[in-house]
Backbone:
């Protein structure tokens, strides 16, 4: 399956995202990595144009989680069938739930585990 990943607008830290990308690729996923400091609409547009079922978002700075929340809201409005997984040092499971994410991944392997549920249909 295809997955879009990005570090959200305002955040230039991408080591964690890069680790997630490598692990997803090792498990056979086709990862579309949009890079760092990516505006919300660009992420949504990439998800729609590539017809992905999962978007992964990363944030390391507390000042950028607002962009993560905005991205998730836009995805829900414009492409509601797409699932979201979020991660990063400033996030918790509770906060991920508050901003509407479908899954909080505490590490790269948790992202892979969630991707498996999305693509086998058990995340619905």
Residues:
């Amino acid at each position: 399956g295809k997955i879009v990943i990005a570090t959200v607008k305002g955040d230039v830290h991408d080591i964690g995202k890069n680790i997630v990308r490598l692990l997803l690729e090792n498990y056979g996923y086709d990862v579309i990595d949009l890079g760092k400091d990516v505006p919300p609409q660009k992420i949504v547009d990439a998800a729609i144009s590539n017809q992905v079922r999962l978007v992964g978002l990363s944030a390391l700075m507390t000042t950028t989680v607002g962009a993560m929340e905005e991205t998730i809201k836009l995805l829900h409005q414009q492409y509601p069938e797409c699932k979201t997984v979020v991660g990063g040092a400033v996030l918790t499971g509770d906060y991920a739930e508050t901003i509407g994410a479908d899954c909080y991944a505490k590490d790269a392997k948790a992202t892979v585990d969630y991707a498996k549920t999305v693509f086998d249909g058990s995340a619905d």
Observations:
- The longest helix spans residues 65-78.
- The mean pLDDT is 96.
